[in-house]
Amino acid sequence: MKLPVKNMKNEDVGEILLDDSIFAAAVRKDILFRMVNWQLAKRRQGTHKTKTAGEVSGTNKKPFKQKGTGHARQGSLRSPHMRGGGVIFGPVVRSHDHDLPKQVRRLAMKCALSSKAKEGKLIILDEVAAKDIKTSVMANTMRKLGLTSALIVDGDEVNEKFALSIRNLPRIEVLPQIGANVYDILRHDTLVLTKAAVEKLEGRLK
Fold first, then answer.
1. Residue 132 near residue 203, CB atoms below 8 Å
2. pTM listed for this prediction
3. Same structural domain for residues 126 and 194?
4. What is the mean pLDDT of residues 59-68?
5. Which of 113, 117, 157, 195 is the most exposed, fewest CB within 10 Å of its CB?
């Protein structure tokens, strides 16, 4: 697959040949679903907790005698059906993380990259850089490129001035290639890769 390479002025400066096994693979929604679910599960803190009947503060004393009161018999004020009592089968502190094979994760990344290429929402830039830290200048650059919601992936390191210039732009995010992930690719409308990012991603996924 061949795609034009643009500069930050939205001018064509050449072409790049992309690996079809990575950028033209079959898009499997089931694999993408598993990957996104795995990523979001890892982000969950799992610190939710309710108290059981054994953890609620209170006495074990029988609240009133068994018979003769006209009320239903009760053994404890900490019972789940009593006001202020414990909770049955409530959430407990736990990890939501689960295993996902490395081969599935690699396939999911290929599917995500291929889906953007198939939709025509993959842009290749020669490089991303900024001379000064100016958000207004970078906003104009994004408008020239037609980007309103985009994930920009660079090589091993992102140009610091570029990252600082772009961080206040809504729905525009920049990452080094090691941070590229399926969830962020899918939740942005357009994927922008530098030539350095393409080289590194193809090395990772082959």
1. no
2. 0.85
3. yes
4. 92
5. 157
